[in-house]
Amino acid sequence: MLTLVTATRCTSQDFLTQTLLGRCLPRLGQFEPFGLKLFSGNSLPLAQIYNQAIEEAQPDEILVFLHDDVRLDDWMLAQRLREALQTFDVVGVAGNRRRQPGQMTWYLQPMADTPEGVPDWSRTVLDREFLSGAIAHASRTAPASLSVYGPSPSPVCLLDGVLMAARASTLQASGVRFDAQLGFHFYDLDFCRSAEAAGLTLGTWPIAITHQSLGGSVHSPAWLQARARYAQKWCE
Q1: Which of 21, 73, 160, 208 could form a disulfide with 94 if both were Cys (CB 3.0 to 4.6 A apart)?
Q2: How far apart are CA 149 and CA 107, in angstroms?
Q3: What is the mean pLDDT of residues 99-103?
Q4: Bridge partners of 73?
């Protein structure tokens, strides 16, 4: 059984009409039934609600953790994930085949700080040679454009948290969970490292999605606080 796990600031009714994910669900359900674990009106860290979903899931469920601003363009999602989870323990749509000390995102190489102690985003460099997967990106005013990162399927060290999936039994048995103390940031990188430390394999799989991302949170105080905690936790 496939179960989508997502959080939204919308009400449960508005979720169905005002979010990219909610609007695509009727088409997804035409091909194969799925479950939805929706946390509406949410202000809690994603890690906290994702952990609740893991604890409450039946062992045979495939849990898909995803944002509410994602459109699932592949209506054969359940079959894709069953195939993917025969190869990897944790699956996503985009990721990086390596991880470097000081790396703050899955797709960028580590960067230096400014004299004020914040990341110098003027010197960002894609870790292009090691990236895998593809995601279509859209805004509210422009059509989607496809970002192709690299060959997929592929084993990876880091996954984009926009969509990650695993069997509930795998996470329950391994004890791998999300770190709620990181808030809304770095939870995906931390989860990947925890999964790797527990001996789980991670990989990308060719699954078509569109992400309507507004971005901009990387300069916030909450992001900087999460960054410091993440670095301390992993001794970087």
Answers
A1: 160
A2: 9
A3: 92
A4: none
